[in-house]
Design a protein that fits this description.
The protein is an all-alpha fold and 278 residues long. The chain has a domain of 166 residues: MetI-like fold (Orthogonal Bundle). Helices cover 77% and strands 0% of the residues. It contains 14 helices and no strands. Helix 4 packs parallel to helix 7 and helix 4 runs antiparallel to helix 13. The longest helix is centred in the first third of the chain and has 32 residues. It is globular. The protein starts with a helix and ends in a 5-residue tail after the last helix. The relative contact order is 0.14.
């Protein structure tokens, strides 16, 4: 029995280990290449650098505007995540707790928008923002990000709010607390895991987003990391600046890896707690 159990565990772990190597190795290779000169990359692309040189990072940060793009991405990610929560938390509470005529239809409408490909709205959105003089505006891009993820955030938060005992809200109402007070002081703290889960998933999505930023931003100084990395990749292709490209990729990727590694426990916990509704 122990032998069978060992073989079963081995059959599960070997594919996972192989998959981990496939995923992690390119990241490690990219990180090592960021410290190499072009000559070292061409001569021995798989070896360790002779000396760890940070010149590629300096060039990527300054000469290729990765530093500015990093700050822009940080701005739209933080603001977009915050605005999304501001919109989604009260909406989720209203749909889950304040039953009214048409609430089910409204909730299903929100969920159905998650099935619509975002590419269908790019052209109308472009002309709408153009008429409102909001093109090439990081604030407008943050608002677009926030609104585009409201349905997904509502989907997560309503599951958590459905698990909050109604007796707590009723007791607070009897004590004279308003509906907004119940939401902010009773319900919101109890669905903290759901809020953290939605925030992490949204933040990673906003940080990695490319197409909306490419369409709505027109000035190089306002580019986010995704757009700026595309420009750097084109430059590297024709000017053999591979070390600088690897450095730029490292700057863009490592913060996300660290951020997700620190908070992935909250994501798993949040998904587990919100899995059962009601």
């Amino acid at each position: 029995m122990g032998y069978v159990r060992f073989l079963s565990a081995l059959a599960v772990r070997i594919p996972l280990i192989l998959w981990s190597v496939v995923v992690i190795y390119p990241i490690i290779w990219m990180f090592i290449g960021s410290f190499k000169s072009n000559a070292e990359i061409y001569a021995s692309p798989w070896s360790l650098p002779k000396t760890f040189n940070f010149e590629n990072f300096v060039l990527a940060w300054t000469d290729f505007n990765i530093g500015t793009a990093f700050i822009n991405s940080m701005f739209v990610t933080i603001l977009g995540t915050f605005l999304c929560l501001v919109l989604a938390i009260p909406t989720s509470y209203a749909l889950e707790r304040l039953r009214f005529k048409g609430s089910d239809i409204l909730f299903n409408t929100y969920l159905s928008t998650m099935m619509i490909p975002s590419v269908l709205g790019w052209i109308p959105l472009f002309f709408l923002l153009m008429r409102m003089n909001l093109l090439d505006n990081l604030w407008a891009l943050s608002i677009v990000y926030a609104i585009s993820h409201v349905p997904f955030t509502i989907f997560i938060l309503t599951s958590f709010m459905g698990n909050v005992p109604r007796e707590l809200e009723e007791a607070a109402a009897i004590d004279g607390m308003s509906q907004y007070g119940v939401l902010l002081k009773i319900v919101t703290p109890l669905v903290k895991s759901g809020i953290i889960t939605a925030s992490i998933l949204n933040a990673v999505s906003f940080w990695n987003e490319y197409f909306m930023a490419l369409i709505l931003l027109q000035t190089d100084s306002k580019n986010t990391l995704g757009v700026q990395m595309d420009l750097l990749a084109t430059h590297a292709q024709y000017n053999s600046a591979w070390g600088v490209l690897f450095a730029g990729l490292t700057i863009a990727v490592v913060p996300v890896i660290i951020f997700y590694a620190l908070f992935q426990r909250h994501v798993v916990k949040g998904m587990t707690e919100g899995a059962v509704k009601g």
